[in-house]
Known about the structure:
alpha+beta
Amino acid sequence: MRATHLILAFVLLAVAACSKPVPPVGKWEGGAERGGVLVVARVEILPSGLVRVMAPDVTNAAPEQMAALRDRLAAELVNGWADVAPREFDFDGEIFRKPGGIAPQMVWDKRSGQITLQLYIGADKALPVPLRPVAEFHDSPWAQG
């Protein structure tokens, strides 16, 4: 019987090691501003593992426009959120990718609870948009940061 238990333990360990990581469930929001690019974002990971994500952005913004653009993008986020359909991502325990994709779309930092959205605009390299965990979404993702 001991050999049978030992084999069963190895099989269970192998199955557990090969199991698909479960993404963290919750809500995140935030924004970033860099080189004339302004973006706000929300992410919600549902218990099913599906992800709702929205990240309206503006490029080539002049410095004097930033305050008005922050307000506009926050309003777009609030007003458009109800229409965002959940979608599937591949998750390896740290990085979210489009199904079958290579490029990281989001990075999960388990220690801090933070998700960093990787925003690709044109041929530029990804713009990291740090998102903080929230219990509920705010009218403005800027208000808390």
